[in-house]
Specification:
Length: 122
């Protein structure tokens, strides 16, 4: 189940980034189709690994803030992680503006909600 969830996060991140690149005008990927697809897949794998391994730790550390804001701080965490992807893949991926960061993180979160299998209750 561990491997299925990991691959679910990676697939969800890849699909979310591809959908964001297709729908949002402020999300731009440099290069032709093949280079853009390769860049989005590598960024999606990176984002999936961050969401699987590092994001749960960040959620535990920021739990008091998340409780006070009734869960809305989770959006700030998602936006910060997408912004990190934008910085790491800076020449290839450009996300212009906070609105595009918000909608990209929202799209990735929605795709992850659909793609990632639920945790076992064991």
């Amino acid at each position: 189940m561990f491997i299925r969830r990991l691959f679910g996060y990676i697939a969800g991140a890849c699909l979310g980034l591809i959908i964001a690149a297709l729908l949002l005008s402020g999300f731009q990927v440099a290069g032709d189709f093949r280079e853009a697809a390769k860049t989005l897949l590598i960024a999606g794998v990176f984002l999936g690994l961050i969401n699987f391994f590092i994001k749960p730790i960040i959620k535990i550390v920021t739990l008091p803030i998340n409780i006070v804001t009734l869960g809305l701080f989770g959006l700030v965490i998602n936006i910060a992680i997408i912004w990190l992807i934008d910085i790491v893949f800076s020449p290839e991926i450009t996300i212009k503006g906070l609105g595009n960061l918000f909608f990209t993180s929202l799209l990735v979160a929605l795709v992850n909600l659909i793609v990632v299998p639920p945790k076992d209750k064991d």
